[in-house]
Design a protein that fits this description.
With 308 residues, the chain is of the alpha/beta class. Helix content is 51%, strand content 17%. The structure holds uridine-5'-diphosphate and magnesium ion.
């Protein structure tokens, strides 16, 4: 019989683990003639009682395993640790908060059997989300798809069912700065999407705020596009040409009309403008250099303190 590994990153999810398991075990029952289920919870340095809850469920159910990090390393690290530990023929990643409906697994498995390598999910709507957040999310997808070769589908979740082969390909990517949405898409394969209505968390709170999302989207740009670098190059090029035109104008004026140059106010503005562009360009380059710096250190993405 074939095995499905369910990877669940958890950060402060003490209230959601039981409801999550209950719901998913219902699906396990429905699929038990075709699939063996295996759960890998990753405790990402939670500050609440998540670890104890995980120890408890792991001792109650033989097919429930957990890894516990030495501190909070972020969801990306949790996903990676889970995928590395997963041994199934099929692997899925799910949030602990039941925002990824387990009942979809049945349809997803049907699609996998039809021959797809990946069955991904996307939210059909952004119900229950603040308007500004939806606006910025949409902008992010518009811009990143315009400037990056890796396609990122709007509203796509990390929740996806993948074959062993796909997960092995993802694990071959050794980068330390992991932007999973991009990596999942970058490896390619035959992907199909299932849409579903957005759900609220069963309990607990989202760990994202506006700034963390902004930072996350910047990571997306830096990791999957050279557009910011091109932008600063163009800004530099254009201001260089403009300054050449200015110099020529001044020389011609000096030779024809003559007289002293007036307008130091405009001069100050120009100096500030050019200085601003230079700092911006330096900042953008700095971002890429920082990523290179982190990559070259080759630090582990996570550290496991305890596991079962
Ligand atoms: N998560 C994690 N580490 C973190 C933040 C979040 O493992 O540093 C997990 C979290 O427990 C949940 C999933 O990632 O299972 C998605 O997080 P959340 O529900 O807060 O995000 P949202 O669904 O609001 O995008
Ligand atoms: Mg969530």
């Amino acid at each position: 019989m074939r095995k499905i590994s369910i990877v669940v990153p958890c950060y402060n999810e003490q209230e959601t683990i039981y409801p999550f398991l209950e719901e998913t075990q219902k699906i396990e029952q429905k699929l038990k003639k075709q699939l063996v289920f295996d759960y890998i919870f990753v405790n990402d340095g939670s500050k609440d009682d998540t670890l104890n809850v995980l120890r408890e469920v792991a001792s109650r159910f033989p097919n429930v395993h957990y890894l516990s990090f030495s501190r909070n390393f972020g969801k990306e690290a949790g996903l990676l640790a889970g995928l590395e530990a997963a041994t199934g023929d099929f692997i899925t990643v799910m949030d602990a908060d039941l925002q990824d409906p387990p009942e979809l697994l049945i349809d997803m498995y049907t699609k996998i059997q039809e021959g797809y390598d990946v069955v991904a999910t996307r939210r059909a709507d952004r119900k229950g989300e603040p308007v500004i957040r939806s606006f910025f999310s949409k902008m992010f997808y518009k811009i990143i798809n315009a400037v990056s070769n890796t396609e990122m589908v709007d509203g796509v979740r990390d929740f996806r069912l993948m074959t062993r082969q796909v997960v092995d390909s993802i694990l071959e990517l050794e980068e330390v700065n992991r932007f999973s949405k991009g990596l999942f898409s970058w490896v390619g394969f035959d992907v199909t999407y299932i849409s579903y209505e957005n759900r609220e968390r069963v309990a607990g709170e989202t760990s994202w705020n506006f700034w963390s999302l902004l930072k996350y989207s910047m990571d997306g740009f830096i990791n999957f596009s050279e557009a910011p670098l091109n932008l600063s190059m163009w800004a530099g090029g254009i201001s260089f040409i403009a300054s050449l035109l200015g110099i020529i104008t001044i020389i011609i004026r000096k030779l024809t009309i003559g007289g002293s140059v007036s307008g130091w106010a405009s001069l100050v503005c120009i100096i500030l403008f050019i200085g601003g562009i230079q700092l911006l360009a330096l900042g953008i380059i700095g971002k890429y250099v920082a990523k290179i710096f982190l990559e070259t250190k080759k630090r582990p993405v996570y550290i496991i303190k305890e596991k079962k």
